[in-house]
Amino acid sequence: MPKIKLPKGNPSLDMTPMVDLAFLLVTFFMLTASVRLTEPVIVDTPDSHSDKLLPENVILLTVDKRGKPYFNISNAEVRVKTLERMGKQYNITFTEKEKKAFGKMSSFGVPMNQMKQYIAMSEKEKEKFNSPGVPLDSLDNQLSYWIRYGHIQERTLAKEAQTNAKRLGHQFKDTPLRFAIKADGQANFLNVKDVIKVLTDNDIYVFNLITNLEKGDDIK
């Protein structure tokens, strides 16, 4: 009895779904990616065994190897409100464009009389700019004002959000404001002590010290 021969066909693979998936992933990353902001100073922090993460809602005080302090607030809205309050303190008026640009910035280390100039700089210009640090001397302790007004503005906005949530019947989760110091390992301790004193002068006695996770046999 003769054998039945089945027709042979060339196997094919439809790549259309893979192409669609690739374009979806590219679109997703384009929409969700954010521009990396220029940091005015690179700080090499000391090592430690602590593995706690930096809080989300934080006022960050950075001290470079020269001992110069820098200031940052993680909440963009609070940053803008604090800038407005500092403008009133030093009789400086900022435009809406300047406020918007300031809200997107990272840490900064300039006195108020240079703030407009610094905001107007491009990212490349900020990389080359030698920041003098935020003044904290006894004659003009601008770092103290930034901390005080930043704290006040953050709590004010948090209370407003809580009131609005309660009015709308929504649940409100308050993320407490934390304070952190990120000091270079080569910075003079006296300069770090001066920054700590600014915190304690504002009745802030609880804060985090940012370090690198130390590598060793007992660290996984």
Spell out the blueprint of helices and strands.
Elements: H1 16-32, E1 47-48, E2 58-63, E3 69-73, H2 76-89, H3 96-103, H4 115-120, H5 123-128, H6 142-168, E4 178-183, H7 189-201, E5 208-209, E6 212-213
Parallel strand pairs: 1-6, 2-4, 4-5
Antiparallel strand pairs: 2-3
Helix pairs in contact: 2-3, 2-6
Unreliable residue stretches: none
Q: Structural class of the helix and strand makeup? A: alpha/beta
What coarse outline follows from CA principal-axis ratios?
globular
Average pLDDT score: 83
Percent in strands: 5-15%
Elements, N to C (H/E): HEEEHHHHHEHEE
What's the main sheet like?
4 strands, mixed
Can you count the beta strands?
6
Number of domains as seen in the coordinates:
1
Compute the number of helices.
Answer: 7
State the distance separating the first and last CA atoms: 71 Å
User: Strands of the largest sheet, in order across it?
Assistant: 3-2-4-5
Radius of gyration: 25 Å
Proportion of residues in helical segments:
40-55%
Write up this protein:
By secondary structure, the protein is of the alpha/beta class. It has one domain. 41% of the residues lie in helices and 10% in strands. The protein contains seven helices and six strands. It has helices at residues 16-32, 76-89, 96-103, 115-120, 123-128, 142-168, 189-201; strands at 47-48, 58-63, 69-73, 178-183, 208-209, 212-213. The longest helix is centred in the last third of the chain and has 27 residues, at 142-168. The radius of gyration is 25 Å and the shape is globular.
Q: Which terms summarize this structure?
A:
41% helix; alpha/beta; 6 strands; globular; four-stranded mixed β-sheet; two-stranded parallel sheet; 220 residues
